[in-house]
Amino acid sequence: MSQHNQPRQLTHEQAMRYSRQVMLPGFDLDKQELLLTKKVLLIGVGGLGCAAAQYLVASGIAAITLVDDDIVEHSNLQRQILHTESDIGVKKCESAKQKLALINSQTTIKTIAQRLDDNHLGQVLTEHHIVLDCSDNLATRNQLNLACLQKNVPLVSGAAIRMEGQVFSMQPQNKDACYGCLSRFFGEQQLSCVDAGVLSPVVGVIGAMQALEAIKILVNFGQSLSNKLMLFDAMTMQWQSFKVNKHADCPICSHLV
Description:
Layout: H1 12-17, H2 19-22, H3 28-35, E1 39-43, H4 47-59, E2 63-67, H5 92-103, E3 108-112, H6 118-125, E4 130-133, H7 138-151, E5 155-161, E6 164-170, H8 179-183, H9 193-196, H10 200-219, E7 228-233, E8 238-243
Helix pairs in contact: 4-10, 6-7
């Protein structure tokens, strides 16, 4: 799809609805009108995805596509806040879609209740302006990273476990360091929330930060996390930011022109 959608003028109702964003210095009507044209691909409707999706839809994006092949289980309810007790056994995509539609009926919400192979992912990417990686494994993160590089689509990746979380973003058009430049320093970690646990608000904090970063990238507002990794330590309530250098021998981006 074209990445240069023309902003559309806000209606009076929309101007009132998004007035708290419009009044921000440097955001104003132009950024909100631009946001109303943007389409987001969100991979993983678990703890991170549930938190991120709510803020994206509430902020006024044009459309969001939710991708997840899982169903809601009782143990998910502790942190995956779009799902409720009555959703147990329901596909996560459908459960999330129902709740998000109640937040903003003007946002188009699509679902893909299956894992995407490389070909399908590439096709879906061309229909969106940014990808939120809310997955829970390194293989998927690396798959999304490569696909975003190939299709020149920005990526915002998040992860959370125990009392820790991280946020990383990449904009291929800026020749940013990619997720491979970061992940080359660590192998696949077998621990998951099932094994190591996670405190419920930690995934909410990281998911909200992913949504914030995505909005800033979509409308070019403020500074992004390009070439940086942000780490959150919930035990001490501290954030740290580390520079991530683009590596000439990165196993992923060094092979792409």
